[in-house]
Design a protein that fits this description.
Layout lengths: L1 H7 L2 H22 L6 H26 L2 H26 L8 H19 L1 H14 L5 H10 L6 H30 L5 H13 L2 H9 L5 H14 L8 H17 L4 H20 L4 H35 L2 H4 L7 H13 L1 H16 L1 H21 L14 H16 L4 H28 L17 H4 L2
Length: 471
């Protein structure tokens, strides 16, 4: 293992290894599909997008992971990814599952897109572009999965395993790096412990994996959410940075085309963090801080206008072209007040209490104050804007998950900044036990529905577990 890591740490070896593996896989894929030449353009497009995705993952590690923690992040990321894959396989191959319409949209879109390319490659490319604007389920995710999915037997289970490898694994990486950076800002000594515990929590968080296990790859959007947060908390904004602005814009675009309702996270988080960063500079009495504020205003204005220009057509379509509030009126169960109650049920009382303690600590701890206040304000803005249309299901609640993650990381940091060793051990043990029980109670409920359609409404869930540990 050490020999492999030492070899992989050299730039030339990394690039050469990744390039050779991807090119060989592409060549093998082309040879397999020689009898279906219409698949080659789609597979090539998928191959190129995957190269970009993995290149960006490499950029995150190189840019935001200090050398002393590089080995730790890679090892923990590998371990949690393998354990997660094992858990997914256990679920997929040991359950009786009838996939309903909402769970098969992305699976069916593989055949839909393939048929477009079969008719005419130009028709296929046009279908991809058209879906980005006109469809709530764009072909963006479908294109990314085309390359790995073409190696499989075409089953629904194979589809889920493919997007676990392509979407969930990069998410784990972004979660690791974001945790490390927040811990660094809080100046916590035991950063390794914090990252390890967060990995355990991400692995055992049922709300995070619910939609993914059913066949809905919405979790991929969290990779972009965490990446955006990572960029924003590490950028000083004291001068305009074209590289940062370009990456930020591409991440926002990628997030929106991944799943349309992540717009509500952008509506909540971006204005919140911009306002609190500016306010922090305004209350600072130094002249230098005032100059920085002027530069921040220029940067935020550019980013805000850029984001608005891109988002405006989607917002216009949502508000004026299609009446989503009418289309989804069946899912409007009580608006904002009900959604708070709804989220409490998803999380469970115990975890909700821990997250509240975490957000309180984040407000008190000065290095965490801006990101925590931004997440609190963003949470309410996201919930308010979303509930103008409907209330959230499990998969839609993922647009609140970045806020939960920050509060959770804040709680874990608080636990590991205690001076007393035994208090640290006790608090870390409590958080691990809560997530283990959370996962176990959810597994009991998930497997209780033997007809296969995971029924998670509050009326169908055993009250023994629902409000204590969440589902």
């Amino acid at each position: 293992m050490n020999t492999f890591l030492n070899c992989f740490e050299k730039k030339q070896n990394r690039f050469l290894f990744i390039l050779i593996v991807f090119v060989l896989l592409f060549v093998v894929n082309c040879l397999i599909n020689l009898s279906q030449p219409y698949m080659i353009p789609l597979i090539f497009l998928s191959f190129c997008l995957l190269i970009v995705l993995f290149a960006f993952c490499y950029y995150l590690v190189k840019k935001y992971c200090e050398k002393e923690y590089y080995r730790l992040i890679i090892v923990l990321w590998s371990i949690v990814s393998i354990l997660g894959l094992i858990i997914y396989c256990i679920f997929l191959f040991n359950r009786s599952m009838t996939y309903v319409d909402d769970h098969t949209v992305y699976f069916n879109s593989q055949d839909e897109l393939l048929n477009l390319f079969k008719d005419n490659p130009l028709k296929g490319f046009a279908g991809i572009v058209f879906s980005l604007w006109n469809s709530d389920y764009s072909y963006f995710i479908t294109v990314l999965l085309a390359f790995p999915f073409s190696f499989t037997n075409g089953s629904h289970e194979a589809h889920i395993i493919c997007y676990y490898l392509i979407f969930v694994v990069p998410f784990y990486l972004s979660a690791n790096i974001l945790t490390l950076n927040i811990a660094k800002k809080a100046n916590v000594k035991s950063k390794t412990t914090v990252v390890i515990i967060v990995n355990i929590c991400m692995l055992l968080f049922p709300l995070l994996h619910f939609a993914s296990l059913l066949g809905m790859p919405d979790i991929f959007g969290l990779f972009f959410c965490f990446s955006i947060m990572l960029l924003l908390i590490n950028n000083s904004f004291d001068k305009f940075n074209w590289k940062f602005a370009s990456i930020f814009t591409l991440l926002v675009i990628s997030l929106v085309v991944t799943r349309r309702w992540y717009i509500f996270w952008l509506i909540g988080f971006l204005p919140s963090i911009f306002i609190f960063v500016l306010f922090n500079g305004i209350i600072n009495k130094s002249i230098k801080a005032k100059i920085v504020v002027l530069n921040e205003i220029k940067t935020f204005a550019f980013l805000g206008v850029g984001a608005l220009v891109f988002l405006a057509p989607f917002i216009y379509r949502t508000l004026f072209v299609r009446n989503y509030s009418e289309e989804y009126s069946a899912w409007y169960l009580g608006g904002f007040p009900f959604e708070i109650y709804n989220q409490l049920g998803y999380l469970g009382i115990i975890l909700a209490v821990l997250l509240i303690i975490g957000l309180i600590y984040g407000i008190v701890e000065k290095p965490l104050r801006i990101i925590t206040l931004s997440c609190i304000t963003g949470f309410f803005l996201t919930v308010f804007s979303f509930t103008l249309i409907q209330n959230m299901g499990k998969h839609q609640s993922l647009c609140l998950f970045p806020y939960y993650a920050v509060f959770l990381i804040s709680f874990i940091i608080m636990s590991n900044k205690r001076n007393n060793k035994y208090v640290r051990i006790l608090l870390n043990t409590i958080i691990i036990i809560v997530f283990v029980l959370n996962a176990m109670s959810s597994i009991l409920i998930w497997f209780d529905d033997l007809d296969g359609v995971f029924c998670f409404t509050k009326y169908a869930i055993s009250s023994r577990f629902k409000w204590v540990f969440g589902v």
